[in-house]
Amino acid sequence: xxxxxxxxxxxxxxxxxxxxxxxxxxxxxxxxxxxxxxxxxxxxxxxxxxxxxxxxxxxxxxxxxxxxxxxxxxxxxxxxxxxxxxxxxxxxxxxxxxxxxxxxxxxxxxxxxxxxxxxxxxxxxxxxxxxxxxxxxxxxxxxxxxxxxxxxxxxxxxxxxxxxxxxxxxxxxxxxxxxxxxxxxxxxxxxxxxxxxxxxxxxxxxxxxxxxxxxxxxxxxxxxxxxxxxxxxxxxxxxxxxxxxxxxxxxxxxxxxxxxxxxxxxxxxxxxxxxxxxxxxxxxxxxxxxxxxxxxxxxxxxxxxxxxxxxxxxxxxxxxxxxxxxxxxxxxxxxxxxxxxxxxxxxxxxxxxxxxxxxxxxxxxxxxxxxxxxxxxxxxxxxxxxxxxxxxxxxxxxxxxxxxxxxxxxxxxxxxxxxxxxxxxxxxxxxxxxxxxxxxxxxxxxxxxxxxxxxxxxxxxxxxxxxxxxxxxxx
Length: 475
Hints:
Elements: H1 2-9, H2 29-49, H3 54-62, H4 66-98, H5 102-118, H6 130-154, H7 164-190, H8 214-217, H9 219-230, H10 232-237, H11 248-264, H12 270-301, H13 305-333, H14 335-354, E1 360-361, E2 365-366, H15 380-410, H16 416-429, H17 433-445, H18 450-466
Antiparallel strand pairs: 1-2
Helix pairs in contact: 2-7, 2-9, 3-4, 3-12, 4-6, 4-11, 4-16, 4-17, 5-6, 5-9, 6-16, 7-13, 7-15, 12-14, 12-15, 12-16, 12-18, 13-14, 13-15, 14-15, 14-18, 17-18
């Protein structure tokens, strides 16, 4: 362990401390659990809006054509990713120079809630409202990612280096549990018949009108309300770094200088640079498969809110224990190995999805397509899709949690915010590329299946690049 740390210190520019990236003693239990509640508060945005419910509704209903909708969704996600990539490193460095993270978190959480609120306007047959819906999506996407950057930067100060993987996994696990509960809520509101409640004709629960898709549109404002309630413990009980007391203009100038200097001398952080490049590629594939999985299922099987909600519930039920186990694997065998395991699981799941069409499985084995009026998930293709999704669930949480931990273990302690900003940059620098390629390829080849093939390529390249990363204390 000592030798590995010393070797990493040799890569740091002069003046960077050589102390551990975490505290000598962990923060209080309340502080750590409150930090994990951030993931609980924010995950429903990714679960019910960008993945399982709102995204397929937007593409299939609001746009009205699955192919055109998937293409537009890809361009919106790509544009958001570019904005995140351009801003995150500078904001992280400014926060490092100024000390405090919570004021930034408060501002971006408010921006996220506002963007979610605009999604109520996503009504089919109202094209004049579509620009406002897209603005809401972009604002929410950018704010969610910036918020994650600043929350991640709090992690190394809350737990010892030996157990930081466990705390990161706890956060992701609580996030998936929050997303799971949110999915149950969406299903109950939109399809109350599933729990034996029969609303008046034409209505969902709470008097929401089915004809105007109010049950799907309410997801945005409901997500904003969930966020406002459950992010409060993090602000109340998780300690922030002390402020520097300097004027903001001075702090901003220093932050910009630090990022430019770090980028210019990035080769001195060679090990971390190798990881960031690998992460940039494999995370792009993960984001794409999460973002387009529900859209793909809705397109080839004609799934609606009920089927997509159950699909999301299954994925989260698997992901919760997987990410907790991944935290143990992270601390026991190292973050790098945990990420490698996760990439393999996600790649196998993606390969399974790629092999499915409406009337075939395993790349050409003919099966009966889903019949109108048939019971849920009665078609062979649907069942194989579920098995493939289970593999995604095994890998997606540990991949994200262990990657977050590895940054904490590789970063100089006085540059954590900046490197989490660069981490966000590496995660978003090409994250626009997979959605963009999917958007272009879907439009050119007129098939949704191309998305899974693009995802596999990104996962494979990232896996290969990760082999050269050296993790302190692990081979």
